[in-house]
Specification:
The chain is an alpha/beta fold. Helix content is 36%, strand content 21%.
Length: 164
């Protein structure tokens, strides 16, 4: 894996019709912000080869809102990513990255935020950036990392939706 994109799902409705967290769908703002983040990443050339998507409704809908910007990406829906911790997210990304240059994970907090902070720390990012990512990783946010031949991460971008 040369690059990893961590993409948190868009803003979800507070409750689902079933009452299950897994079934919560995106709010209209979540659909718009997910599409916006996808467009921004694509415009900057952050194009995944493979996308690992949690099977929850809100992550599937996040990918549906963004996928038009990534026409060559192959999506895989992974049960393990539903509320996965940072270690699980990293393992799944590395496994997929054995056969792909750029991997995107569409998932949930706290796992994505924790992995973002961990990779920033490993990559010796500035303390102010680590502090910012520690404070917040809002819905529809994305973090991008490059990896060298030894697997060491380097910060390549942090994107928050524009909430003017």
């Amino acid at each position: 894996m040369d690059r990893l994109i961590l993409f948190r799902h868009g803003k979800a409705e507070p409750e689902s019709a079933s009452g299950e967290d897994f079934d919560r769908r995106l709010a209209p703002r979540g659909v718009a912000e997910s599409a916006e983040t996808g467009a921004q990443l694509a415009d900057l050339g952050f194009l995944p080869d493979v996308v690992l998507v949690s099977t929850a409704a809100r992550t599937r809908e996040t990918w549906a809102a963004a996928e038009a910007h990534f026409p060559k990406a192959r999506a895989r829906f992974e049960d393990e990513l539903y509320h996965a911790d940072s270690g699980c997210v990293r393992r799944e990304a590395e496994r997929a990255g054995a056969q792909a240059g750029t991997v995107m994970v569409v998932g949930h907090n706290p796992g994505l935020q924790e992995l973002t902070v961990r990779l920033l720390t490993e990559g010796a990012a500035p303390p102010s950036l680590i502090a910012r990512a520690s404070r917040q990783f809002p819905t529809a946010a994305a973090a991008v990392f490059l990896f060298d031949a030894a697997g060491r991460p380097a910060f390549d971008g942090l994107f928050f939706p524009d909430r003017a």
